[in-house]
Structures are given as C-alpha cells and as structure tokens.
Design goal:
single chain; 137 residues; Nuclear Transport Factor 2, Chain: A
Length: 137
C-alpha cells in the first residue's frame, strides 16, 4: 500500500471522527496509507475524517467498486461539525458485511445540515469498503 501524506488543514490534534483519540492514533494511519481499517465502524469513522479533510482519493479508494462514482466532488465551503455513531451491526473482525448508523453534522453557507444514515459495508480480501446507505429521518 503506497503512503499518501496529506497536509492537515489546521484544527485540533484530536481525530475529527469523535473517537477522542489523536488523529495519529486513530484515522490518520488509514488516510495516510499506512494501514487499513479492521472494522466497518473504523472505516466509517475514517471516511468521515476524509470528508472533514477533503481527501477525495481516500473516499473513492474505500468505496465498493461497482457502486462508487467515477468522480467525487465535495460541497464547497462545507464545514463538518461532528459525528455520532448510533449503532453497529456486524462489521467486526470475523464478519464479511456490516452496518453502521450515524449522524454527521455540518454547516453549508451558514445553514446547519444533519446527515443521518445507515451505511452498509462489505469486506473483500480482508479490506472493508463502503457499499451504500439509507438516509434516515
């Protein structure tokens, strides 16, 4: 796996995913290409961090082939405010599929946005991928 070093755009040393850990001890090694997430929840948290840090290459690389878009354009000026994991099902070290329900909050153009989703993940050859998700209200 090739290392991808991405400069962080300021912010705290705590990982944006809300784990309470430092980025270097949480999602950083995944986004920097040093290791891969071992659970569906770890992948989901690292994908949230990738949205915060605007790492479209990581988001595309961790999207299930066949369902991922060819290009991913992030919302300009979107400020991510926090992530809350509500529930997980499967997605563990011995599983091949998993689901993670979460709420991600952001602000776009001064307006608060709340994304509540139940995401589905698939593990292929030991690597987790985001497959798709259902928006919840």
């Amino acid at each position: 796996m090739a290392k991808r070093k991405h400069p962080r755009r300021g912010g705290p040393t705590h990982c944006p995913c809300g784990s309470g850990l430092n980025r270097e001890g949480c999602c950083g090694p995944f986004l920097d290409g040093e290791s891969i997430p071992q659970t569906a929840e770890a992948l989901m948290r690292s994908r949230y961090t990738a949205f915060v840090e605007r790492h479209t290459d990581y988001l595309l690389d961790t999207w299930l082939p066949g369902t991922r878009p060819s290009v991913l354009e992030l919302e300009a000026g979107q400020q991510w405010l926090g992530l809350s994991v509500r529930a997980t099902s499967g997605g563990g070290l011995e599983d091949e599929t998993g689901q993670v329900e979460f709420v991600a909050r952001s602000r776009i153009g001064g307006k608060g946005v709340r994304l509540h989703e139940r995401s589905r993940f698939v593990r292929i050859d030991g690597r987790w991928y985001y497959a798709d998700g259902d928006l919840l209200t």
